[in-house]
């Protein structure tokens, strides 16, 4: 399990670096509540973005985006609303994104960012 945790943490680090380079600012990382956890919460231009990060070492068993099911997306929406209910002031605009990382050993990670998942 430790190797999986390390891969996930590296993926979050890659995603955060990628997003920051694109002009996003980190609001929270690994925000948790009773309903679950949001990997990254970032902000750019007054819009708060809730980011699900999926990391794989290869696409041998499927692309990372394939792990984002309808149930996971519904949970992300509930988590986003829970975070907004606690925010002071609440954000005026929100979005849910996903970042897929394929981080093969010894190679540069391949990063894909999909905006506005529903």
TrEMBL record:
UniProt-listed CDD domains: PoNe_Nuclease
Pfam families: UPF0102 (PF02021)
SUPFAM superfamilies assigned to the protein according to its UniProt record, in alphabetical order: Restriction endonuclease-like (SSF52980)
Stored PANTHER family: UPF0102 PROTEIN YRAN
Protein family: Belongs to the UPF0102 family.
Record-given protein name: UPF0102 protein GCM10022381_10920
């Amino acid at each position: 399990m430790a190797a999986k945790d390390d891969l996930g943490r590296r993926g979050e680090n890659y995603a955060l670096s990628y997003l920051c380079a694109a002009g996003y600012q980190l609001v929270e990382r690994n925000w948790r509540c009773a309903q679950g956890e949001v990997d990254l919460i970032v902000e750019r231009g007054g819009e708060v973005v809730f980011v699900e990060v999926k990391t794989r070492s290869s696409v041998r068993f499927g692309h990372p985006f394939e792990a984002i099911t309808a149930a996971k997306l519904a949970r992300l929406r509930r988590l986003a609303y829970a975070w907004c209910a606690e925010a002071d002031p609440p954000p005026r605009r929100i979005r849910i994104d996903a970042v897929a990382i394929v981080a093969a050993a010894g190679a540069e990670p391949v990063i894909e960012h999909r905006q506005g998942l529903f």
